[in-house]
Amino acid sequence: MNQQATKITVVGGGAIGGIVAARLARAGLAVNLLARGPHLDAIQRNGLTVMEGDDRYVVNVNATDQPGLLGAQDLVFICLKGPALIQSARSLAPLVNAGTHIVSAMNGVPWWFLNAFGGRLEGQRLESVDPEGVVSSALPPSQVSGCVVHLSSSIAEPGVIRKGNGNQLIVGPAAASVTAHAAHAIELLRLAQFDVTTSSEIRSDIWAKLWGNMTMNPISAITRSTADVILDDPLTAQLVVSIMEEARRIGEQIGIELNMTAEVRNAQTRKLGAFKTSMLQDVEAGRQLEIEAILGAPHELAAKAGIPVPFLSVLYGLAGQLNANLGAPKG
C-alpha cells in the first residue's frame, strides 16, 4: 500500500492519540484527527503543537468531531478510554469498511479480546467493554490489531501535547487474517519515530501491562496515595499481590502465562518512586474513571472461567462506587 495514499484517522486527540497523530503528520503522512471541545477548537485554529523535551513543533492535521465527513479509512487508530469508546462507537461506523484496519491503543482489556482467541471462550463478547455489542458492531473485531503503549504523554493545554518518558509501542495482529495490515501499521509507526516491537501474542502483552495497572491505578484513586506509599505499606502491598495472583490464575485458565512474579513486577514499579497513576490524576481532575477495561473485564473473564476472585471483586466494587460518587456512571 502506498504510504502517502493511506487514509489514516486517529480517533481521540488526547494524550496518546495526539502524539500518534502528530508524529504521523510530522513524518509526512496526511492524518485526520477526531477530537472535541476546546482541544479541537485550538487545533483547528493553530495546528497541533507537541513538546518533546526541548523540541517544540506544530503540525497540521485535519481535525474534526464529525467522523461521518471523513468516509471509510484504510487505517484507524482507536486512542480513546473505554467509556468514551462506548459512547461514540456508533458514530465511528462510517470510518470502517471491509478493508479498514483498526489498531486499538487503549488501556486494559479491549472489546475484541476474545475474538480468534481459541479455547472455550472463543468469540464470546465481554459485556463490560462491549455492552450489547455496540463497539464490535461498529469496529469489527476481525479487523483489529492491538497496540500496548509504554510511553507517557499529557495535554498541557488545549491544542498542546507534552510527551513524557518512554517511546515504546508493542503492536500485533489480533487474528492471523490481519497480519499483513499489522505489518504496514508497524512500518508507519516506525516512520513516525516510535520504537515498535512486533508481537505474535498481543493479548499476552496486554495482560502483562494490565497486571500492574489493575491494582495500582484503582487503589491509588481510592486512597489518593502515590505508588510508593501503596507498596511501602505492608497491608496495601499485600492487597496488590493478592489481586495480582487472582489475575494470574485468570490468565492461566484462559491460556495466558505471565513470566514473572508479582513481587518482581512490584519491585519494578517501586523503582519509579512517588508517581501519581493516571487514575489518581483523573480523580483529582473529577474525570470519569476507566473502571470496566481495567477491572470489569478481568472480573467478567473470571466469571466466565469459573475462577473465584474475592479481592478483585472488592476492589471492583469500591472503584465503581468511587466513580459513581464522582458523578460519572460506572459503565
From TrEMBL:
Reactions catalysed, as given in the entry: (R)-pantoate + NADP(+) = 2-dehydropantoate + NADPH + H(+)
Pfam family, one: ApbA
Entry keyword Oxidoreductase: yes
Keyword vocabulary terms for this entry: Oxidoreductase, Pantothenate biosynthesis
Domain Ketopantoate reductase N-terminal: 8-109
Molecular function terms from GO: 2-dehydropantoate 2-reductase activity
Gene3D superfamilies the UniProt entry points to: N-(1-d-carboxylethyl)-l-norvaline Dehydrogenase, domain 2, NAD(P)-binding Rossmann-like Domain
Pathway: Cofactor biosynthesis; (R)-pantothenate biosynthesis; (R)-pantoate from 3-methyl-2-oxobutanoate: step 2/2
Limits of the Ketopantoate reductase C-terminal domain: 202-321
Superkingdom in the source lineage: Bacteria
Enzyme nomenclature, EC number: 1.1.1.169
InterPro entries on file: 6-PGluconate_DH-like_C_sf, 6PGD_dom2, KPA_reductase, KPR-Related, KPR_N, NAD(P)-bd_dom_sf
PANTHER family named among the record's database cross-references: 2-DEHYDROPANTOATE 2-REDUCTASE, PROBABLE 2-DEHYDROPANTOATE 2-REDUCTASE
The name this protein goes by in its record: 2-dehydropantoate 2-reductase
